[in-house]
Amino acid sequence: MTATENAMLEIKNLKAKVGDKEILSGIDLEVKAGEVHAIMGPNGSGKSTLAHVLAGREGYAVTQGSAAYSGKDLLAMPPEQRAREGVFLAFQYPVEIPGVTNKYFLKAAYNALRKHRGLPEAGAGEFLRLIKERAKLMEMDPELLNRPVNAGFSGGEKKRNEILQLAVLEPRLAILDETDSGLDIDALKVVAKGINALRSPERAFVVVTHYQRLLDYVIPDFVHVLSAGRIVRSGGKDLALELERQGYRLIDGEIKSREAAGAP
Amino acid sequence: MADQAETLGQLITGDYKYGFVSEIEADQLPPGLNEDIVRLISSKKKEPPFMLEWRLKAFRHWLTMREPSWQNVKYPPIDYQRIVYYSAPRPKKLLGSMEEVDPEVRRTFERLGIPLEEQKMLAGVAVDAVLDSVSVATTFKKKLSELGIIFCSFSEAVQEHPDLVRKYLGSVVPYSDNFFATLNSAVFSDGSFCYVPKGVRCPMELSTYFRINAASTGQFERTLIIAEEGASVSYLEGCSAPMRDESQLHAAVVELVALDDARIKYSTIQNWYPGDKEGRGGIYNFVTKRGKCLGANSKISWTQVETGSAITWKYPSCLLVGDNSVGEFYSVALTNNRQQADTGTKMIHIGANTRSTIVSKGISAGRGQNTYRGLVKIMKGAAGARNYSQCDSLLMGDLCGAHTFPTLEVNNTSSQVEHEATTSKIGEDQLFYCLQRGLSAEDAVGMIVNGFCKEVFKELPIEFAVEAHKLLSLNLEGTVG
User: Fold this and answer.
1) pLDDT in tens, B110-138
2) d(C-alpha B287, C-alpha B266), whole Å
3) Distance of CA A26 to CAs A10, A67, A75, Å?
4) Interface test with B, best of A57, A80, A164 (most B CBs within 10 A)
5) Strands annotated E in B54-164
6) Mutating which of B425, B434, B448 best tests the A interface, going by the most A Cβ atoms within 10 A?
7) Considering the entire predicted model, what is its pTM?
8) Which domains does chain A have, with CATH numbers?
9) How far apart are CA B380 and CA B377, in angstroms?
10) Tens of pLDDT along B360-383?
């Protein structure tokens, strides 16, 4: 990859710590509109940390490097502004909010984004049509829209709900944090179908995953292997297959031992 | 969301929104309390002898009582001789209609956002407006009286319906009940009275806006609601008070009586001045509220949203006397800054197959202290009685506290009692999840807290629910970020 003017996300030598422990040890990554990048790696390699740092979660100290989003300093923005500018994180563990219906939550989020863009709030009927249509795409029981956010949802329902939010909020940069974990094959296919339906020349995806499985259905343009907080290999979709065959042993021993010493 | 953001903005700049004093000529007694004052109050109100006797019995009993100290709240000693026990807006002439109400009084209500005329038109709510201690306006009276419903000020009830007052006054909360109820019995100045005759369903929500006004005037309101056999009524009580340097004592008494098959629903939103961030000023809200399900199959339901006052200390309770009677208590209590709340309920099961439900939601922020205190008592004769209690606490930040003191006393073997309690903190996870979807921290907290309270809010009449929703968000302004 070479730096070009239309890079949507440009991460340079990004280092981040949790407490005293360095988790990201110099990440370089460039993502353009329309691309799907898969970030793979063993447990503790820093995949989820990267997703959280990009979304602005508290508890991580960025010690070095930069992340530019559409030319702006992403790391300088508070998390809600990143979201309003079009950065979406699909959570590995979607959070429950008792007493707040899915529909209400989605509408509040949707209108927060519209407000940021200087658009009027969506009318009730118009919004209802939108979410029903998107829920259909995700093969979701419309009744889930009236239930409290993620409360009492099955693992699969929670993940589908994340992609539903993605489909409604239509971000420019979608970061999926292990969206495939805990899904059976049918749910995985539905989620993948949802993601594929949302691929567009204006939208980029960063798909964080442990397994290659999701990538059978969501074909990435690029695959990066993360180990001990660094991207140690990058390639096309075949890299994922190679990893699948050989496992993370593919990554050389030196890196593995460093990871064992450095990362949780 | 836009509305919420806007009101939040107002609050940040405006501090307590309802903090203003309206200039109304007040007819005041000098501060202090003695038998002469009690006699003066009674004579100013032209009360029949039985009322004076009742007040004097209460006053004499009060002199033998000591202020209780078992509650989990702290406040400086109250000097009862510095309190003004009677203050009434001086009527310029008799009021025939709303238009004749003192324009200053009307402006006060308008600034509170409750223009009476509009309420008349829009909500179909009959408003018995209590400003300071005397009712200044009563609307919809005619329509109600066609149905035989009496809805008037307590003073008027004493004049016009002395037999009813005599029969039921003190029948639920006796004059000797407790220190503050006894004080109230001696000096209460006014309040609301409602009587719904046999078989009548009150066609509208009845509403009273209490408003504490003249400086250093303790408010001693008294409310009495009676639902005869098969009658039903829903009563709304909403409050806000002007800002004050000195702490103000508010010791009201509410009595509800439900006869066979009758239903009373009593909803409260309390948003009195809570004091400043250090807890200076603010209302002491020491209230005795109790309902008696006297008849079989009767039902009394309390719903309260307590967001104001420096100290809230109250236990809306039910005496379940009639067989198959039902008592309910739904409560949200929010304490922020230095606010303290010790609230809960007592459900006393006396009749057979009586049922009660308690849902209490306590929210603590800042240095707020929130206590749930409840008693479920099942008497020997209450065969087959059932209770369900749920007490949830939500903590925001590290300096606040939540305390739960449930007491269960079961004296027979055929009853069922269930108690559930949770304490949670507004998690960083929840907050981050909302922020990541583009919500502001204020909106996120408002949403999470309102979600937490939903089981209670759904018990409120719709207009009240909207108001409650706003109030919580406003009162939590500045607790995050």
Assistant:
1) 555 555 544 333 333 445 555 544 444 44
2) 14
3) 13, 11, 15
4) A80
5) 87-89, 126-131, 134-138, 150-153
6) B434
7) 0.77
8) 7-262 (3.40.50.300)
9) 10
10) 998 888 888 888 999 999 999 999
